Amino acid sequence: MRHSLEHTIGQLLAAESLLAKGSRLLVGVSGGADSMALVHVLGALRDEFSLTMVAAYIDHGLRPEETPAEWARVREAANHLGIDCACMTVDVHAAAAAGKLSLEHAARELRYQAFAELASKWATDWLAVAHTADDQVEEVLLRLFRGGGRKALAGMRLRSGNLIRPLLGIRKAELLRYLSDQGIAYCHDSSNRERRFLRNRIRLDLLPQLEAQYDSGIRGALLKTAANLAEDEDLLELLLAERWGLVVDMVPPDESGQVICRLNRDAFRCLHPALQRRTVEKVLWTLASTAHYEQILAVLDAARCGRAGSELHLSRGLRVAVHRAYLAFSHPQGKGPWRGRLTAS
After folding, report:
1. Which of 9, 87, 213, 261 is the most buried (most CB within 10 A)?
2. Residue 290 pLDDT greater than 90, yes or no
3. Quick one: which of 191, 165, 235, 175 has its CA closest to 63?
4. What class, spelled out in words, does domain 252-330 have in CATH?
5. CA–CA distance from 44 to each of 40, 126, 268, 295 (Å)?
């Protein structure tokens, strides 16, 4: 008889059209409780959705004493479920030092790069990860501390491109009950107790304090807030899509392969401020640039009242030339830092 959690996730996959029947699915499995629950739930639904599954374990090189047991646990689960499994090792310390990133940031970037490589190797259509409702609460608080706007505070989505999060509406306590009911063993990640990581301090210290001293329902309130903002975000995305072609013109690459993006200033000024910010943010992302708040404000100011002939120097070598009728975004020296103006003053 199917477990209630498996039934719930099966209904979700069908109702939200998260997976088409016959999909090839890469499942991120660390050996921990959340991901072990995910791979077993999806394994129980494999025949119903005609899924081909591959369990993917990423060794970040951060806990060498724990990695062998985790990888063994993932292989054991894959063997039990009758699915393939794969492992890839990444060097987080080196990436963090080279990019001047936090270990958390570097680990996340390398993890998804590794998933992309494995997805290509195994020809999978989707990547499933085990983010839960508890992770969503922590993520919303993290983004709030970083000064995120509406889009950031909407939290993670059930589907982002080819990435799906089937457990995003499930609390961790429910996953632990499932693992206990099914007799599924899992590993404990010791780094989850290290308070040098902000996410862990939020989980171990801040949220318990908020629940005990301010509002016992804070987790539910944050989840509802994120869900409401996500609905607002969907509407704003639709509104932006309707106007994007009137405001932004992507010029085909020239002989050097450089892509230039032009933003029509008159059309841009007619947009609501909320859509103006989103337009600038999307332009920066489209050109593979960072979209820091200060940079968005600088571009907004240039589009609204910037003097023709002036220019902005943004991150990764992105230049914005201000013309009377439009702003021109380009990487004249490639995607890397450089000094100097586009034109002689």
Report:
1. 9
2. no
3. 191
4. alpha beta
5. 6, 17, 50, 47
- C-alpha to C-alpha distance for 136 and 134, rounded to whole angstroms: 5
Amino acid code (one letter) for 184? I
The whole-number average pLDDT for the span 67-89 is 97
At 21, list the tokens: 């029947």
Dump pLDDT digits (tens) for 55-66: 999 999 989 999
Query: Collapsing DSSP states into helix, strand and coil, what is residue 262?
Result: strand
For helices 4-15 and 172-182, angle between their N-to-C axes, nearest 10 degrees: 130
Q: For residue 13, what is the DSSP state?
A: H
**Where do the CATH 3.40.50.620 domains begin and end in the chain?**
4-218
Please give the single-letter amino acid code of residue 326: Y
Average pLDDT, integer, range 279-290: 86
Q: Report d(CA 167, CA 29) in Å as an integer.
A: 13
CA-to-CA dists, residue 11 to 6, 133, 168, 279, angstroms = 9, 17, 14, 36
Give me the phi and psi of 231, to 5 degrees please: -65, -40
Q: Which amino acid type is present at position 64?
A: P
Exposed, middle or buried, 74 (CB in 10 Å: 0-12/13-18/19+)?
Answer: buried
Starting at the earlier edge strand, list the strands of the sheet with 163-164. Answer: 84-89, 52-59, 24-28, 126-128, 163-164, 159-160
Element (H, E) at 264: strand 260-264
Comma-separated ranges of CATH 3.30.465.60 domains in the chain: 252-330
CATH of domain 4-218: 3.40.50.620
Judging by DSSP bridges, how do beta strands 52-59 and 84-89 pair with one another? parallel
- 76 in helix, strand or coil? helix
